[in-house]
């Protein structure tokens, strides 16, 4: 039976959504038959990793903020649930437009069920502290890509005058007299989440907060621009030092367009690299993909960018034409690093390129300690990958073969779909609820590019 595409389902913000996600996990699969050459255009959605934080930021203001270019993905629905749980009213998502009325938000506990499903819900900690001087958020557990502690969030907040204690699995955070004090915070690692939570908390602090060794991702700049529209003065976002000048009054945002998703764009570029292309991605800024583009060229692909402002920008990739059988991708070493280094969120997808390259590549994972679970699934499709600590040694093979495989997380799921596109025969990807978390209409978009792919309910 054909599965109903995730994004065609009715938008319902209630606890039923958690069960719906589980049903997708248990009963739906994506079937891919490899061998087709993909070509055409794909318009990239707004960035998941940005919009979730913009949604959290909207609860800083007593009023309605509107965000556009919002992807219809399950993580957005889950964040909407988190905000509704806190008392916000979130409008149905229509044509990428979402309005959040935060006038009735209260600093209620954000429960384990939600934090466990959506780690990014920890981003409500900073705004709740800023607005109410208190917050209770369930402590996130580890996940399949690593232990993912939040010590840097809590240590940074402590510098701003926040005390916290762990009560029955919840972080109960408070400020003295309800206000935070601006401070200098130096992060031991350029953590994206810690930088964001500190920026959000500092919006109402008394005085200036300086975050050193801050994360520099485009999503950090997007959050800063959103906060600037809320009336907060922020300087330095995108550099290692960010200054946030605490504001007395924070206003809702009339309309803000989310930055394009560089990871989604990178995923489609790999599809072009693997199958020959040409594939053109639009709606994303080529500057945000400099390192992945450099690596695609090292693999032997031809990439062309036109950067006429985000709305008119495009990247076109022409891969090695594998069907011609004459040339293969070149092996390439990659190490993941915080931006502007190579993104860990594209590591599994690029591992597929290395898996069929003509020679050996080494991929070094420096951001998450456990992000090589994907390699085992790829080996089930005939890849030759061995793991030593945080290094993966990939001996390129001529062909992958289709197999039943299981997505262990969002990006691993995308990597398996990509592998299925070039594998001989049919692959069945299980646990696709992970893929729905971050890719809008991925089956339809790949099919429109020429892939033989369908979503099935078992
Ligand atoms: C965000 C992204 C994720 C991306 C990652 C790195 C979202 C929703 N997710 O995750 O897709 O892969 O950035 O680009 O935006 N760490 C600590 N203590 C902390 C915080 C982090 O030890 O307090 C460690 C983590 O375990 C990890 C590393 O630092 O090993 C990077 O984490 P971080 O940059 O914070 O990633 P996230 O914000 O969780």
Q: What is the CA–CA distance across the termini?
A: 7 Å
Instruction: Report the portion of residues in β strands.
Output: 15-25%
Radius of gyration: 22 Å
User: Helical stretch count?
Assistant: 15
Unreliable runs, pLDDT <50, ≥5 residues? 1-16
Would you write up a description of this structure?
The chain has 15 helices and 23 strands. By secondary structure, the chain is an alpha+beta fold. It has 2 domains: 17-45 and 260-457, UDP-n-acetylglucosamine1-carboxyvinyl-transferase, Chain (Alpha-beta prism); 48-257, Alpha-beta prism (UDP-n-acetylglucosamine1-carboxyvinyl-transferase, Chain). The strands form 6 sheets. The chain has a 4-stranded mixed sheet with strand order 21-22-1-23. It has a 4-stranded mixed sheet with strand order 2-14-16-15, covered by helices on one side. β9 (184-186), α7 (192-202) and β10 form a beta-alpha-beta unit. The termini are close together. Bound molecules: uridine-diphosphate-N-acetylglucosamine. Uridine-diphosphate-N-acetylglucosamine (UD1) is lined by residues 49, 52, 120, 146-153, 189, 191-194, 344-345, 367-368.
């Amino acid at each position: 039976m054909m599965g109903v595409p995730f994004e065609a389902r009715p938008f319902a913000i209630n606890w039923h959504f958690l069960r719906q996600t589980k049903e997708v996990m248990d009963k739906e699969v994506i079937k891919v038959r490899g061998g087709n050459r993909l070509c055409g255009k794909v318009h990239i959605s707004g960035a998941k990793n940005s919009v979730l934080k913009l949604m959290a930021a909207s609860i800083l203001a007593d009023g309605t903020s509107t965000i556009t270019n919002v992807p219809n993905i399950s993580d957005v629905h889950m964040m909407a649930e988190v905000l509704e749980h806190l008392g916000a009213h979130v409008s149905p998502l229509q044509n990428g437009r979402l309005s959040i009325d935060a006038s009735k938000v209260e600093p209620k506990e954000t429960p384990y069920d939600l934090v466990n499903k959506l780690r990014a819900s920890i981003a409500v900690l900073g705004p709740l502290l800023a607005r109410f001087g208190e917050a209770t958020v369930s402590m996130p557990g580890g996940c399949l890509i690593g232990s993912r502690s939040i010590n840097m969030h809590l240590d940074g907040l402590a510098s701003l005058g926040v005390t916290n204690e762990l009560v029955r699995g919840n972080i109960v955070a408070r400020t003295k007299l309800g206000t935070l004090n601006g401070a200098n915070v130096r992060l031991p690692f350029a953590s994206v989440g810690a930088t964001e939570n500190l920026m959000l908390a500092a919006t109402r602090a008394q005085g200036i907060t300086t975050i050193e060794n801050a994360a520099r991702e485009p999503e950090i700049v997007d959050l800063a621009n959103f906060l600037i529209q809320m009336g907060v003065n922020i300087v330095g976002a995108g550099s290692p030092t960010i200054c946030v000048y605490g504001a007395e009054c924070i206003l809702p945002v009339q309309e803000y367009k989310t930055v394009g998703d560089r990871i989604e764009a990178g995923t489609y570029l790999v599809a072009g690299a693997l199958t020959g292309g040409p594939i053109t991605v639009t709606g994303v800024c080529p500057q945000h993909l400099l390192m992945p583009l450099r690596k695609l060229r090292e693999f032997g692909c031809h990439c062309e960018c036109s950067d006429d402002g985000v709305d008119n920008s495009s990247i076109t990739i022409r891969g090695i034409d594998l069907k011609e059988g004459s040339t293969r991708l070149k092996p390439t070493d990659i190490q993941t690093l915080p931006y502007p280094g190579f993104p860990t969120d594209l590591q599994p997808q690029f591992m597929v390129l290395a898996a069929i390259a003509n020679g050996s590549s080494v991929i070094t994972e420096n951001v998450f300690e456990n992000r090589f679970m994907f390699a085992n699934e790829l080996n089930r499709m005939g890849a030759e990958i061995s793991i030593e600590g945080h290094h993966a040694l990939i001996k390129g093979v001529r062909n992958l073969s289709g197999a039943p495989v299981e997505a262990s997380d969002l990006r691993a799921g995308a990597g398996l779909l990509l592998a299925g596109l070039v594998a001989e025969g049919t692959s069945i990807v299980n646990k696709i609820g992970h893929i729905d978390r971050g890719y809008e209409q991925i089956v339809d978009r790949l099919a429109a590019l020429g892939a033989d792919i369908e979503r099935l309910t078992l």
